[in-house]
Amino acid sequence: MTPTTVEAAGRPRVEGEREQEILDAALAVLVEVGYDKLTMDAVAGQARASKATLYRRWSGKAALVVEALAAQKQPADHPDTGSLRGDLLAAFCGAHGLTTPESAAIFAATITALGHDEEFASAFRREIVGPKIARSRAVFERARERGELRDGLDLELVAPALAGIVLHRAFVLGQAPDQATVTAVVDQIILPAVLAPNRG
User: Fold this and answer.
1) pLDDT exceeds cutoff 80 at 16
2) pLDDT tens digits, residue range 142-184?
3) Beta bridge partners of 63
């Protein structure tokens, strides 16, 4: 990702450990108050930095928050367990999946902004959602190579389906995205929809 950078002439860049401290502060404020109430002043206070320091590096809160989210450690790819079911459960119930308290808190803090902050929504979908969907698609591509999937399956439609169902249940129906829920969605919805007849 290449965030928008606003630097004043002659002033040093914010980088290295100091940059990470500010990104961590942004996440802390995000989870505490949500994206809509997050301000550059609040992040500066949390990071013990001046607001001018933040603006030397980021154009505004959309650029800062998206970079903070993107900077979280993520796997290069989801683990290959040898089966689609195993891969999906490992990906979505593991350390970086949907069932961790951190993931739930971040989605809760950002979801309302996706509907009214166009700058944030565009960057979030490109830098955060896009890579997640790509990793999910890779899981289904591996399953296709194993011969697990039925013919004619549209992976563009299928790849985000599990996350979409689980997050809908969490934020619309108020049901926590725990491992039992993810497992039930995999077994009762995703696998029946995608597996070849001889693999069901």
Assistant:
1) no
2) 999 999 999 999 999 999 999 999 988 888 888 888 889 999 9
3) none
Q: Is 149 helix (H, G, I), strand (E, B) or coil?
A: strand
**Pick from 132, 123, 141: which is nearest to 97 by CA?**
132
pLDDT tens column, 141-153: 999 999 999 999 9
Query: Tokens standing for 149?
Result: 């999937």
The answer to whether the CB of 106 falls within 8 A of the CB of 30 is yes
Residue 82 has a CB neighbour count (10 Å cut-off) of 10
CA distances, 135 to each of 20, 37, 176, 180 (Å)? 25, 31, 23, 22
Q: Which residue is associated with the tokens 């320091």?
A: 53
For residue 190, give the nearest of 82, 181, 198 by alpha carbon.
Answer: 181
Report how far apart, in Å, the C-alpha atoms of 113 and of each of 41, 64, 87, 153 are: 19, 14, 31, 32
Alpha helices in the chain, H assignment, sequence order:
16-33, 40-47, 51-57, 61-70, 84-93, 101-110, 118-124, 130-146, 155-158, 161-171, 179-185, 191-194
3-state DSSP call for residue 82?
A: coil
Residues forming a β-bridge with 17: none
Distance of alpha carbon 37 from alpha carbon 141, whole angstroms? 40
Q: 195 in helix, strand or coil?
A: strand
